[in-house]
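Dear Dr. L.,

I hope this message finds you well. Following up on our conversation about the binding site, I have prepared a predicted three-dimensional model of the protein together with magnesium ion. For your records, I am including the exact sequence and ligand specification that went into the calculation, followed by the structure tokens. Please feel free to forward this to your student if that is useful.
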Amino acid sequence: MQSQKALWPWKLLLAAIILMMAAGIWGATKQIDYTWRWQRVPQYFIYQSETLQPIPFDGRVHKIVEADKSALLTLESDTGETLEISVDTKTLEVSEGDELFEGDYLGSISEWRFGPLLQGLGVTLWISFFSGIIGMALGLVIGLCRISSNYCVRHLAILYVELIRGTPLLVQIFIFYFFLGTVFDLNRHVAGIGALAIFSGAYVAEIIRAGIQSVPRGQMEAARSLGMTVPQAMKNIILPQAIKRTLPPLAGQFISLIKDSSLVSVIAITDLTKGGREVITSTFATFEVWFTVAAMYLILTSLLSQIIFWMERRFAVSD
Amino acid sequence: MIKVENVVKTFQGRGQIVRAVDDVSLEISKGEVVVIIGPSGSGKSTCLRCMNGLESFESGSICIDGLNLADRRTDINRVRREVGMVFQQFNLFPHKTVLENLCLAQQVVHGRKRSEAQQKARALLNKVGLAFKEDEYPSRLSGGQQQRVAIARALAMNPKVMLFDEPTSALDPEMVGEVLDVMKQLAAEGMTMVVVTHEMGFAREVADRVLFMDQGKIVEEGTPEHFFTNPQEDRTKLFLNQVL
Ligand SMILES: Nc1ncnc2c1ncn2[C@@H]1O[C@H](COP(=O)(O)OP(=O)(O)O)[C@@H](O)[C@H]1O
Ligand SMILES: [Mg+2]
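The resulting structure of the complex is given below.
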């Protein structure tokens, strides 16, 4: 019996190649005299914002209760109203008894805020999520129409699939936003989600069709011979088996969808890609930001792969 | 019980028209076991499939227990409920356990309650000797066991007629017996059965009547006795010489 071949030389080689590529990139940036400023990037994930707190009326500071972090000010206006405002203790600019005019600053409050990169990630996430769900539902319906025995229904589905698959997504997004968006008065987010959903729907339809057709004919015949109607057989017998078979290609489709969603930035939706572009205009850290954005997409898509992998294992019990 | 009159079924195959079932008429009464034999491609499967509406036919009529299949107003699903079918390839539902295979259609079609369906299913699994396999998935069963489950699944719908399309042809020889035993038991209980098979032993032992089909037509018809002692037609003799 041949013993298992040693893997470590290949692992070593792999590591060496990856290291060489990294060194190559590093060397290339040396050539063009680029200064890496990675330290500029984190603040665009999350940052502390300072908001100045002005007094809303003419009056005086009646009382200040200072705690560790924040101070609670009790203000009294000239007309006798009182108001409580809290600011960070460190930034406190007034003391008890001070007379103030409307708009004078008392201090400021700092809070943690998501920067453009995380906000963009959020937008990318929910746009992909909703267009994925709608695309899946649409694809399921169109996929079923695609194999319908009705000539008209079948050809309408074919027409839809061919139209969508035959034109670039970027062009579809423009048409959706500038043409349909104007006609039906859609906002950019609805237009973006709509375009992505219709786009992925066409691909999901083909995947579903292939999945259904891969279920042996005998399954439908057995279900029908037991007295089930076609919809009953579809729901209980054919679709569960088809979905299981289509899980890997569907996962691929959703991963594509997440990546394709970067195209909605052209209609001024601030998704992860557009967020990245905005950060670049204020930092000029072009390389760092694009690498960071790429890494964030990668994390998102590999998380999705993991989930699908886990689902596949769950479904595999009957094999 | 079953009355087939002048049924014609053609297929459009590569330029030429195949008359798969060519003007077939036959009558089967309640409790009768009819075995259909004939060479491959002679239209036996198509004939069976016409009888439970899996295949439509061009002309003629098929009446099952008073329901006319040729009549557009007949609810085809109602006919199928009355007619159980067992396939050569078993066609169990691979994503369901054995018990679920037996329960699903009962619940979906007859609207039986889960507990009621399971009770019925367990009784039938007992009958085919597979009660201990109820939680297995079909892929874990041998061919013979799968076919017995398939028979039980058809029986769970309380059919009045059972159609068998070469139920043992996909089985290893040592498993043929267990499936035939179940079918013999069913025949003994008075089930109306139409069986397409190459198992001449089964035909001889169980059949009330044997039909020989060739090229879409019923060429010869008679008791097993008649077939195995003095067949009349040349084609029948030729075929029997090959299989016996
Ligand atoms: N779906 C089909 N499409 C075209 N021709 C078919 C189809 N099903 C059966 N046939 C043809 O009909 C004839 C009878 O087939 P079948 O009923 O399966 O024969 P058997 O079961 O006796 O072997 C054969 O010539 C076969 O090629
Ligand atoms: Mg056949």
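In brief: Residues 116-146 of chain A form the longest helix (31 residues).

With kind regards,
A. P.
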